[in-house]
Structure formats: C-alpha cells, structure tokens
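ugh ok so i messed up the first submission bc i forgot one of the chains. this is the corrected input, ALL of the components this time, i swear. 656 residues overall. if the numbers dont match what u have on ur side tell me asap before i send this to the collaborators (the ones from the other lab, u know who)
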Amino acid sequence: MASRDIVHYDTPLSKAFRWFSAVFIGFYLIWTLLPIFVMFVSSFKDLLEAFKIPAVGDWMGAAVFFDFSPTLTHYENLFRNLNFTSYIVNSLVAAGGSALISVVLGSMCAYSLSRIEFRGKSDLFFWIISTRMAPVVAVMVPLYAIFRSLDLVGTLPGLILAYTTFNLPFAIWILKGFFDNVPYAIEEAQMVDGATRSQAFMSILPLVAPGIGAFLVLCILFAWNDFLFAAIIGSGGAKTLPVATRELVQPQNIQWGSIMAAGVVTTLPMMLLGLVIRRYLVTGLTMGAVKE
Amino acid sequence: MAKVSIRNVWKKYGEFPAVKDLNIECPDGSFLSILGPSGCGKSSTMRMIAGLEHITAGDIYFDEQRINDLAPKDRDVSMVFENYALYPHKTVFDNMANPLKLRGQDSARIKERVGQAANLLEIGELLHRRPQELSGGQKQRVAIGRAIVREPKLFLFDEPIAHLDAKLRAHMRGEIKHLQRTLGTTMIYVTHDQLEAMSMADTIAVMHEGELQQLGSPREVYNNPVNAWVAGFVGEPAMNFLTCDVRGDGGEVLLAHPNFGIALKPEQVKCLNGRKGGGSVRMGVRPDALNIALERPAEPAIAGEVFVNELLGGDMIVEVQLSDARVRVKTSPEFPGNPGDKCYLTVNRDKWHAFATDTGKAYF
Ligand SMILES: Nc1ncnc2c1ncn2[C@@H]1O[C@H](COP(=O)(O)OP(=O)(O)OP(=O)(O)O)[C@@H](O)[C@H]1O
Ligand SMILES: [Mg+2]
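and heres the new structure output, hopefully the right one now
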C-alpha cells in the first residue's frame, strides 16, 4: 500500500483558510465546553457566589468567577434529602436494561435478516425501520394509554420496554450492516467444521463486537439522556435523573445549586463511559469490511 | 470413509442451471478429481456435497445413506474452501484446532494433531499468527491443515493449491496424494489444472458448462477422450485439430486435407459408422504423437513450414504452418529447424482421433 500521507502544498488561500478554521474551532470549543465548565464550577459554589457577575466591559472582573470557597452542600442535599441515589439506580437500570435487550434481540434479528432470503424480506426490513419515522410525541399518547392499561406506567419494566421499542428498530438496522460485512464463508467453514447454525452465529460475534459495543453505548446514551419517555411513562415510580433534575425547578424556588450538581451527576458517568470506550466508538461505527 | 454417489443432481441458481443432471460414483477410498474450466459448476457440486447449497433435484448418497437433508455438521466431511475461509480473529493454531474443539477433543490431542498437520504443511512457525499476517500460499496451507486435523468420511478440496508457487505446488501434490493413500479416506478434489488432475486422481470427472463430459481414469481421459472438447481441454500443450474430408479411394478410406491424405486403419474405418465417402470430420492429434523432420521421409508425410520454436527445457514445441492451419509438435531440443524452413510431419496412426464436426463426439 502507498503511504497514507496526503501531500500538501500551501497557497495563500489555504493559509487563510487554516487561520479561519483555527478561529472557528476555538469559538466552537468555547461554545460547547463553557456551559459544562460553568455548571461544574457552579455546583461547588453557594448561591451568593454563583451569582456574582462583573459589570459589562470589566474584563478583569471575570476573575470573580474563580473567587469562591468550594462547598459540597448541594451534593449533600441531592443525596441526603432528595433521594438521588435511587434516581441514579433507576437511570442505570432503565438505560442498561433497554440497551442490553435491544442489542441482544437486535443482533439476532439483524443476523437473520442479513443471512436468510425469504419473500417480503425488503418489505419487512422497511417496515421495521419505518417505525422510527414518526416523531416520538406523535405516538406518546396512544403509547401512554396502552402502558396504563397494562399497568406499566411508573414502573422500571415499563420504561425499559418503552426505550427498547424505540432502540430495537435502530439496532436491527445498524447491526444488519455489520453482519452484511462479515463474509458468509466464515460460517460455512464453521458449519463444515461441525458447528450448528447458532454456534456459527456465536463464532462470528467477535468480528462484529466493535460495532455491537458502539451501538450498545448509543442505546445507553439515548435512554440515559431521554426526558420525554421518563417524564410520561416513568413518572412517579421510575423517576430518572433528567426528570428528578427538572423537578428542582419549582415556581417559587429554583434551586440553582442543586440543579448544577444534578447536572454534573447526570453528565459525568456518560463522559467517563465515553472516555473509556472512545476507541471502540470510533472504530465501531466506521467499521469496514472484515478482512479475511 | 464412504462411497459417494451423485445421482441425477441438478443445481439451479434461479433459472440458471449451474450443474445439469450429474451422475458420479466415487468408490470408497478413491481419489476423484473434478476437472473443468472456470464456471463449469465444480464448486457448486462440492458445496452440494458439503451441504452448503440446496440440491435442486437428484440425490447424493454417502454409502447407502441419502444425505440431501443432512446438516453440514452431520455429514462428517472436511472441506478446503476455494477462498480459504479462515477465521480472521483466530490464530493459525486456533483455526486448525477448530474442528477438533467443536467435536469435543481434549487439548492434548488437539495440540498433537495440529502439530502434526503443521509439520506436514511446513507452517509450524506460523501457528501464533493471524490470517491477515499470512501470504496467500500460507493461508491456503492453513486451510488444508484445518481439513486434515480430523479423520472425516470424506475430504472435499476445492482448488486447494492454486495459489502456491510451482515448486511448492509440486511438493503439495505429492503430499496430498500420499496423505490420501495413507489415510485411505475418500477424496473429491476440484481443480481447473489438468496436470493436477492427471497426476493425482484415480478417477477424473471432466465437466463443461455444468455437464459431465467424461468419467474415467486419467489414462482413459487422455487416450480416449469422448469428445473434441475433452480432447482439447486435457493435455498440455493442447491437441491439434484439423478439419479433413473423408474420401473413399479404391479399397482404402482416406482422411484428406489440402496438405495431406492419410489412409485409415480398417478398425478405424469401422468406427466412422459408414461415413466412407463424403462429409468431413475433425481430426485430432496430440503434439507428442507427431514427428517432425526437415527431410522428406519415406512414408506419407505432411508438408509445412516452421512458424516458431519454443524451447521448454527438456522439450521443444515447434509450431508448424500448414496451408490453412497451424499445428504444434513436441520434439527434442536438438531439432535444427529455424522459422521459415520447410519441414515434414509424420503421424503415429494409432494415436490420432476423429471427431464429428457438428457434435464433437469422438469416432475413435
Ligand atoms: N450464488 C450464485 N448465484 C447465481 N449464480 C451462481 C452462484 N454461484 C455460482 N453461480 C454460477 O454458477 C456457475 C458455476 O459456478 P461454480 O462456482 O460452481 O464454478 P466453478 O466451476 O467452481 O468455477 P471456478 O473454477 O471459477 O471456481 C457459474 O456460471 C456461476 O456464475
Ligand atoms: Mg470454484
């Protein structure tokens, strides 16, 4: 293979463009990171310190932003008085459970769709993915009615079922692409070697593992960050972090400190997860054909 | 070990027939080679025997058991795939150990069997590598290794040594043949290389466009091809074909060509089924059944002109221009003729063939 360096020659225009890109990226970083940074710092401030704002044009006054004595009161409040421990558990169970079910069922279904030819296959496949075309709010009311008559509203199984309903078609669609990339010859060799069909399926799982792992994370992210389902289907018994955070906004009393701390508690696990599996996320969803 | 019977087997992909009404009997312990050009349905046949492809019509039997509806794992065959089909995420050792593991062998035995196979194939030092880190020839040897760690009823080898260099190929031909002899396992071996089929097989099945042309020993296929197609496909360099008229001349029957006329033997005349006078046939003669000389010999000879000489080590192939065709002659490297020289060909009358011009069927 030829070297992968891209030979590059500077022109005045490309130099100017490079400067422009650098400035743009700088602004973009501030735009995306500053709110998170403010949230993080503010969660350690008490209310008075948090609202110290310098006068317009007083650039040196920005220093007051860092002039505070750190306190953990907001976190104590969350976990002592507001029962956030159980909300974290709810979030974890709902997100992890639905992601796991979606990926397990999704890979089996995707495998079959990838390997077996039958009449109406493309119609079936289109039908599966078309269930994701309607906006969530459009189906929310009937879904709520169904869930209520099944006594699933306000329960964790109900919430898991709701997330799975929405993750599964997507999982099938994405994972089918991964299975399509695995040469069928590998399973044929397995079956001649003495494997059953399901053993052959298991044997190619390592080849699609990066894709499955990446998709598992996407499912977790979707469920963890979701507000709409959690607020309507999970309301009451299966309160998750976003809903609990929203409830800190009360008409007479917006608990800014606790909201900031709750924001940190909600964001941090996903950021850590992202860091840990970053490598797989990048290789996973861009995974090309498996080389024989 | 098993006898394999393929009876009236068809394979259709949609409407396209890849294998047409195939009938092959392969006795227990014998080495059958399926020979044919690319796309003639060799792999399709193999895959039906292995159970990877549905049999559109007909039956396949192992001994007296009909195996049409048996899953691949229950057929107890080992297969070398045309495209290797190695497991990319497993090391060479684990690739080769896979069939044994799936059949629940203990690890000491697995180690021993894989080690033996690796030694035989000279890939002992590659056992810890992954398939991506191997050359094509090495992959092919690993694929063979995976097939021979077990002692199955039947070996199915689909062009297993096509990607090796000439020297290693010659070596592997010997090894595979020897292995099959010692184990006594029935072998079906697909190849498009007629030399491979000739040198290894007990029986050759020649296929063309999905149809079985001839089933016979290498000698039969070479010496008595059933039609012009088989005659032209088997043998290197290929057989020469010349269109001749059949002419009754007094008591004799002649094959007449603008350059020559040669009398047929009485038993050859019989084979022509009364086509004594009139009509034409295709005469076929192998390059090694022709003799070439620069002086006109006493017996009737074919006059021509040397077109080009090709030296192939111990042999020389001389291409001779006749009035309307070229023929190739195998001779010794000492042949003194140069391009443009007049030369004379004589034919060994026992070693030539006549085929019908329309159907290609052999008269003799
Ligand atoms: N899955 C398929 N669908 C449609 N046609 C197929 C399929 N597999 C093979 N064919 C066709 O069937 C014919 C026989 O194919 P096959 O693979 O058996 O040939 P082969 O003799 O093994 O050739 P080669 O020496 O190139 O491997 C070919 O014309 C091929 O195009
Ligand atoms: Mg083939």
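quick check: Residues 9 and 15 of chain A are 10 Å apart (CA to CA). that seems consistent at least. DSSP finds 13 helices and no strands in chain A.
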